[in-house]
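It is worth pausing here to work through a concrete case rather than discussing structure prediction in the abstract. The textbook approach is simple: state the sequence, then state the predicted structure, then interpret. We follow exactly that order.
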Amino acid sequence: MNEYRINGLTIKENLLQLAENGNKKFTESLHPGIENVLGIRIPALRRLGAQIAKDDWESYLQTADTYYMEERMLQGMVISQLKMKDTEAYLSLVARFVTIINSWSVCDTFDFYGKQRFVDENKKRVWLFLENWMKSDKEYEIRFGVVMAMAHYIDEEYIDNVLQWMDRICHEGYYVKMAVAWALSVCYVKFPQKTMNYLKENHLDDFTYNKALQKIIESYRVSTEDKEIIRSMKRKNK
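Step two, the predicted structure:
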């Protein structure tokens, strides 16, 4: 199969061109241990993704490479732009993307096409989809499930499910722990009493627990009085 081209260039040629106006050193500093980072600015990458989504995106996805971190990110951005009537076919594309995630930013720059509207139209199905990733033993697959659950399911109907899953996840990956802590801080902002009850009795490791408290304290949406209570709940280093 011929390599996909857009703007008269291959994807790698497009990316290398965009990288000329990027910030490689800064981006590398945000992704310790991740190889082959070009440092392309996110808005520029999103514009290319939107352009591909309006073009022959199937040919692009069939030939897409994963050498550069931004090549992985671009696949997610293209899938984010695809309006498909077949939910299962769409989730199949998302699943393929999830397996190539290799950094927090590749994970966190993705969202479903239509965002909350898509989730609301397929609430139970998408939740099962996310549960499948939260059951994984791979760091970025779990993070994907957690970040998407945080983005779309911290509501009256699913808050208990979210808290149960945050308590159930057990993985030593730094980016899993940080995602769980981040999600719990959002849970607290939206459902303070339920989350407080959970924080008083949970199975979180000390790092994740204390990081969740820290993120709650850093929130502008938490009162000074509540922050003092949260601060007093910190676990001491053993």
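Step three, interpretation. The chain has a mean pLDDT of 97. The two ends are 58 Å apart (CA to CA).
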